[in-house]
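Limitations
The structure tokens in this dataset are predictions for the assembled complex, not deposited experimental models. Users should treat interface geometry with appropriate caution, especially where small molecules or nucleic acid strands are included. An illustrative entry is reproduced here so readers can see what is and is not provided.
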Amino acid sequence: MTDDQKIFSGRAWVFGDGINTDVLAPGRYMAAPIKELAGHCLEALDPTFAANVQPGDLVIAGEDFGVGSSREQAAEVLKLLGIGAVIAKSFGGIFFRNAFNLGLLAIVCEQSATIEAGSKVHVDPAAGQICIPDKNIILTSEPVPDFLLEMANRGGLVAQLETRLLGKAGKNDQ
Amino acid sequence: MGFPHREYPAMLSSLQCFFRMNLTLPRTLAEKIIARAANLDRVKSGDIVTCQVDLAMMHDSGGPRRVAPILKRLGVGVWNPDKVVLVSDHYVPGDDDNAKSILQLTRDWAHANAIKNFHDMKGICHVVLPEHGHLKPGMFVVGGDSHSPTGGAFGCFMFGIGATDLAGVLVTGETWIKVPATIRINLSGKLRNGISAKDINLALCRKLGMGGGKYQVIEFAGSGIENLDIEERMTLCNMTAELGAMTGIIAPDTVTEQYLESVGAGGTNSADWQSDPDANYLEQHDLDLSDLAPQVAAPHSPANAGPVEAHVDTPLDRAYIGACTGAKLGDLHMAATILKGQTAAPNVRLMVAPASVKILADAKADGTFDILTAAGAEFLASGCGICAGYIGDLLGENEVCISSTARNFQGRMGASSSKVYLASPYTVAASAIRGRVTDPRGFLERVAHD
Ligand code: SF4
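Predicted assembly:
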């Protein structure tokens, strides 16, 4: 892993507490293709979000981000919109797993409320550091465990399974 | 180097002592199940372990349509089709082309993968599983749905996962977990007339908040459990999802055994699946059931709960009795107790979606269906319906609904401007009669006086 992959930066979109799966991936569009669903991500709270978000942007939130349904489209649409990571005070347990499974970083930061909308943020998920250069602030986050970081960087669980299954096939071939 | 010989016996005996102690340290029910599934003598909270899955449940939304492409990419099939239960419920009854094709894809996949336990449009997964005797105490079960904790009512460790995790299980038969600690809720006393498990859940949502479960296990215990039938226990465990718990669990007792016997799943030893008396809990909370009043959660969070008084007289457009949380046979009985000889207010649509086809049949056989129909109830298909907000007659702009379901997130059941109040089936039924949020106890006094 190079340093470029380890530390990254993005612009902050800030949301509050209890951002649930139903506002991330609204039920009435769940049968639609994922690209269409992504267009409705968070529209109940900010109708401009999906249209204006840029690849590499970060989603910042308070408590219980992704709480609710097991629908992993809630994480998938964020990934599809190019979100680099979600930084929240806490996460719904299923969302947290889904995010890493799909290659989206979910980072727990007690002081996420310090981050202001539009500010530039540097993130070092392994070290557990979040830096806001304009304000000269460094926040601590929970370091992402190696195995999750590795899975996310590889693109998620399926890519990891692919390697594992291919590894097995390779062994059998010998 | 090495230890001098004379120290061997002492070392040996202290080692033996250490191991014996470790094996006999008191354990919670969840720890016992996880240790068995992980093939370890013991586990402690925070450990990351890999568990063999006894059963994997999935439904039409998070199931085949999501996992089939992953299995195809990996070029593998299902590890053990007999350990998979598939239920079509989210897109039932399939009243548009998208829904129809999802239901058909589900059927085709079940057939192609030799899934014998496929329950097609028979009801909501969390209710259909126990009805068919799929759940037994001590099992380690994953479900591709967030209300999978419902299975905890049968002494299972059953938790919800997303579709990619599910695909991983289908391929390998195993999954990793971070061993959760247990939060114990001690229930005492007996619920008064007109109060139900749903009120317990809402009171807990207010007290602990949606993150209060900390993605740990919530075990319901204490003498108050004895008075709750199996369906009420399902409701209790179901809404641990709204408490942010990994799952809920209740140790099996005679009530559990009798139920399992009745669905052909008897024969487990309940004594093996209990928390040890001195087991270690992360937190303990006490709740006296005899104190509890009817609860209502205001929009847009289950944690906005409080006694019904705060919302009495809020005008309503709909009253919905549905979902795995609030449309089991006992839930319909609660509604019928209130609605017997009454009719819903003319400006309110009273809608009932029994949680399974079997429950609908039972409600027809015991007269509940007739009481509710006479009160003006529209009956809907046995599926997730407007609870999921995927299909059906969803809430329109600014519509206000009182609902026996589990979640009232903004826009979940329809338009972003709609509002949902969560309550027990008693409270939903009483509110339907007046067209306004209503304390059901007034109607019960009337029944008592009649
Ligand atoms: S009825 Fe509602 S809560 Fe239950 S499984 Fe269906 S969508 Fe989920």
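Some entries come with short summary sentences. For this one: Chain B touches chain A through 47 residues (CB under 8 Å).
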